[in-house]
Design goal:
This protein is mainly beta. It has four helices and 16 strands. Strand 10 and strand 11 form a beta hairpin. The longest helix is centred in the N-terminal third of the chain and has 34 residues. The radius of gyration is 35 Å and the shape is globular.
Amino acid sequence: MPARNVPLTTGAAIHKCIVTAFLAFAASAPALAQSDPEPAVTKHKDEHHEIPPSAHTIAGNLGLVSQYVFRGLSQTNGKPAIQGGLDYSHASGFYAGTWLSNISWYTDQNANIASAPVSLASPGSVGAPYTPNRSNAASVEWDFYGGYKGSFAGDWTYDVGAVRYYYPGRFENVGAYRNPDTTEVYGAIGYKWVLLKYSRAISTHTFGVNESKGASYLDLSASAPLGESGFTLLAHVGRQDYPGNANVGYWGASGGNNNFFDYTDYKLGLTKDYFGFAFGAAWTYANTRHAAPDGQTTAYMNAFGNNIGRNRVVLSVSKTF
């Protein structure tokens, strides 16, 4: 009957109106959202506030060198070394770190005369001041350092601090030598890629030399980029000075004194980064003396007949992480 169709038609019309209104509202929602000055959903706070960078930095380094040369002197008698360290720095300028390398220079020293060399590793056969059946051992250098650095007037920098050169090992028969552990204080000033640094020993002994407190090292170094090539030129000149004390226990009547340990050293080198590694090659030279005027009491001539200064070539590869 027609009367039954009327409600159906009316209901369909109402349903159609509701659907049409809903679609119209949905279509207008983006416009409403764009006009709303405050978003309906609160953003995460990290999107509103920038997280400040950490004031603390920790970096490590690992390297391999064809020989370890320090201040112009081979610490490994021309043999390779594995080296590594860890550094901490604070945004304020304070820093601290540690660094290690294998070495052999201490026990490579000559405990006897040049014509009859005996390694300091086992010097008992030499006689006084050495003791029979006792030995020495030192195969690692372990450094600890800390200081403060900063900059001023644009490209100028400064650095002050202290370093402890620590050689763990056995030192039961050192004779005319002394324990090699050494403490230095230092100050440096730099301009762009040039640095001038002065170090002074404040420990009783300096690298195993008796009566050597106050020994100093002056270092002028440059690290200059070569245009856009990616290569960096290294240049250095340094001067090691020991107080001119007699140190009779070592030099005796040889005509020498601790000034015979003085020398000047030079360095020229190149470095370049490849695939995240730093590769380097350098030539060094130190005008170190072989021996005292008597020709027998050795200065920088070790028990293997090698002057640990003079001409050296060093190849290196290292990684910082």
